[in-house]
User: Fold this.
Amino acid sequence: MKGKLYLLRVLQYAFLLSCFILAVFPFFWMVVGATNTAVDIIKGKISFGNELIPNLNRLFSDYDVTGIFWNSCKISLLTVLGQLLFSSMAGYGFELFSSKTRERIYGVVLLTMMVPFAALMIPLFRLIVSFNLLDNHAGLILTSLVSVFLVFFFRQSFKSFPKEIIQAARVDGAGEFRIFCSIVVPAMKATYAAAAIYAFMTSWNSYMWPLIVLQSNEQKTMQLLISTLSSAYFPEYGVIMTAIIISTLPMICIFFSLQKHFIHGITGSLKQ
Amino acid sequence: MAEKLPPLTLSSLDKKRRKVSFNNRYGWFFISFCLILLALFMLYPIISSLIMSTFSSRGMISRYVGLGNYKRLLHDTVFLQALKNTLLFFIIQMPIMLFLALMIATLLNNKAIKFRGVFRTGIFLPAVTSLVTYATLFKMMFSLEGFVNRFLMTTHLISDPIPWLVDPFWARITVMIALTWRWTGYNMVFYLSGLQNIPDELYEAAKIDGANALQQLGRITVPLLKPIILFTAVTSTIGTLQLFDEPTSFASGGVTAATIGPGNSLLTMSVYIYNLCFKYMPNFGYAATVAYVIVILVAILAFVQFKLAGDRR
Assistant:
């Protein structure tokens, strides 16, 4: 019995470890690749080389990486702020001030999650053109200021918020918007952190919609830069790897700094 | 008694009415911004493309065809190919990924396992990479002379290099491997947070009753996680049917006018829509029709999944 249990443990660890290695290896390979030449990468070399500086030099001299990186940051930050504010307000409104009409509207809002982006793409594209926002970051940000998924996520999380606190604040004479801003938001930090990670991830990583809206080189985002680099006739693998690292780094930093909240936030929203 | 009743009911009615108007005022205030944005960037496009799908256009000229576009789909071999490719990903890749995610999550929920935090972080890490990034990485790793083939050949698992990206069959496999790599950890986190809400006593009681690990999974974990499994299944269905970024990045040379991937093996419905709008002579009406096929398929599949989850209870 004991031997059997021991064997099971070993198997479990082996399974987890192989999953872990498979998951992490491409990251390692990406870092190694950034320090090697294209030829070495093709050859499958997996030890560190000393080409990192030349690769970086070539990337920065051929493309306006700082500008492109700034574009991505600007778009993502504004989108995240908008999504957090509008989606959490909506989730709060639906949850705390429910009425029959609003419940029905909520149902319709949730249904729109099923509609694929491809179905909205063409009318949205026309809308952007008619607003004169083609090739403009505002067009990208404006269309993604609300996330239906986040409305749902926030509403689920607000369900576990103690209503007595809100009632007490009302008795003390606080206005509804003030209650929301200075009592509810600070208390739901974990939820906001999880939502922020989600929103930043989707915005930073989005590809199809920026590909359609942004057309000139100055407006490009990191994702578009990478796809341009890798679809070249003779792809410079080392240079691509450095670009990939630069574009992945912010995500990894944000994830590691907010990781604790992320798991807590998801757990909080799933409790109901 | 009779004298006191009328004022009482009146005042309580009045109170109720005041409460309703208070509720309404703030309820509408809090959701108004969201509703305005959704109406403009969600509802309007949805209705607009539904109308558009009844028109057929060639460049500037468009004419009303009613359900003609939908009939045309049935004879469009390119569309049928796209449908087949998309459904292949749905049928094969999605169940494998969700099952794997559930396996890892149950293991990581076991308190006897050490280094759970490290495993969890590592396995989730792929979920932070962008679609373009990981597609590019995998394209390099899976190239004919790339790392994966070299590794498999030096360990003598294969004798000839596998044509990962050039053969229609293997190209699909590669995209499936990549998709599984990217999304397993993401789904695992949802299962993990769901599992944390299941009390340990249930498992202990099951152990005392002599249930093995598989029985515990089938009798406790899956039934109690059902809402979350349903959630991940529906979101994955939506994601799979909308598959766009991966195929475009994987297909060598990107999207060309005629084909994508070897023998059109990576042509998914979303890619077809993109081609119809931006690569061929634009036919927005027909593209909108294909988009609505996705909507209908998602609705049907989600409905089936809800039914399946409900019936097992």
The mean pLDDT of chain A is 85.
